[in-house]
Design a protein that fits this description.
Elements (H helix, E strand, L loop, with lengths): L3 H18 L5 H6 L7 H7 L6 E5 L5 H8 L3 E6 L2 H14 L4 E4 L2 H11 L3 E7 L9 H11 E12 L22 E3 L5 H5 L21 E3 L4 H10 L3 E8 L2 E2 L8 E2 L4 E3 L10 E7 L2
Parallel strand pairs: 1-2, 1-4, 2-3, 4-5
Antiparallel strand pairs: 5-12, 6-7, 8-12, 9-11, 10-11
Helix pairs in contact: 6-7, 7-9
Length: about 280
């Protein structure tokens, strides 16, 4: 499936990826020193992956992919961004952690994987992924088709309820609007989040990044996601919600609860900022 808006997003991500990695220092040394970018929630959701074939969807620049490989998995990362995949491949080589990275529009990648009979024990996606996909049902069917029988899909994502608010916590946007939302381009959220997303120490890097390419986001409610997975033939094992967001400082006054778990200001009520799904292919 070819999607013009996906292609626009590819260009926007190519520009943003350079800015994002400019803030993260010597990432190869970070990994050579035994570090990981995974949070406990992801590790719990995945379970023991030693010796398993793991597919990492929308892997970005490969940091989480290499963290998965360090746990003993054979990892394949897929992303639409040329810059992200090139960076991930260099990072794998320079860190000495083996992983395979493939650049493709995810929907086209699923088609090719079906034709080739590729199958995985785990499929993993995390944080800010499905908002770049124009069809949640195509996504879910692709996941089901590349899972081995008994294989698990582990998914953790920012909560769509949080996307109702503007940066000052005022309700501003519709919940899961059905039309794509045009933005000025993928922003420098690493700069906005500082050490929350630059875990080895934040560096100034690119300053005042302005993306020359617009981007388009697709907003999916939790019901959309769960129903798509069910319709694809997967069995939902668990659905969890969290009153914090790992690493992401998306709103004013957020406070660190420890370990990079970012929560609303103390004066605000608790809100769901993240959710997770585990689903099995019978």
């Amino acid at each position: 499936m070819t999607n013009d808006l996906h292609e626009a997003n590819r260009l926007s991500w190519n520009a943003a990826t350079v800015a994002h990695n400019s803030h993260k220092g010597d990432q190869a040394a970070f990994f050579r020193n035994g570090a990981s970018t995974l949070y406990p929630e992801e590790i719990d959701l995945l379970g023991d992956i030693s010796g398993l074939d793991v597919l990492h969807l929308q892997c970005n620049s490969g940091q989480d992919s290499l963290s998965l490989a360090r746990l003993g998995a054979r990892v394949t990362g897929v992303d639409i961004s040329d810059e992200a995949i090139a960076f991930a491949s260099r990072l794998s080589k320079d860190s000495g952690i083996a992983a395979t990275f493939e650049r493709a529009d995810l929907f086209s990648w699923f088609d090719d994987a079906r034709s080739a009979g590729r199958r995985f024990d785990r499929v993993f996606a995390s944080y800010g992924t499905i908002c770049w996909l124009s069809d949640i049902k195509t996504w879910a069917r692709g996941i089901a088709d590349v899972l081995k029988p008994g294989g698990r899909f582990a998914f953790i994502e920012f909560h769509p309820f949080a996307m109702v608010f503007d940066p000052g916590w005022k309700p501003h946007y519709d919940y899961a609007p059905k039309e794509p939302v045009e933005e000025a381009g993928v922003g420098d959220y690493v700069a906005d989040s500082g050490e929350g997303l630059a875990v080895d120490g934040y560096e100034k890097g690119v300053v005042d990044f302005k993306n020359p390419h617009p981007s388009f986001e697709f907003n999916w409610g939790i019901a959309d996601v769960v129903q798509a997975l069910i319709d694809a033939g997967l069995r939902i094992e668990c659905l969890k919600e969290y009153p914090y967001a790992n690493g992401w400082v998306g709103f004013e006054g957020m406070r660190d609860l420890g370990g990079g778990r970012m929560a609303p200001p103390e004066a605000m009520p608790s809100l769901p900022l993240m959710y997770a799904i585990s689903a099995i292919r019978p």
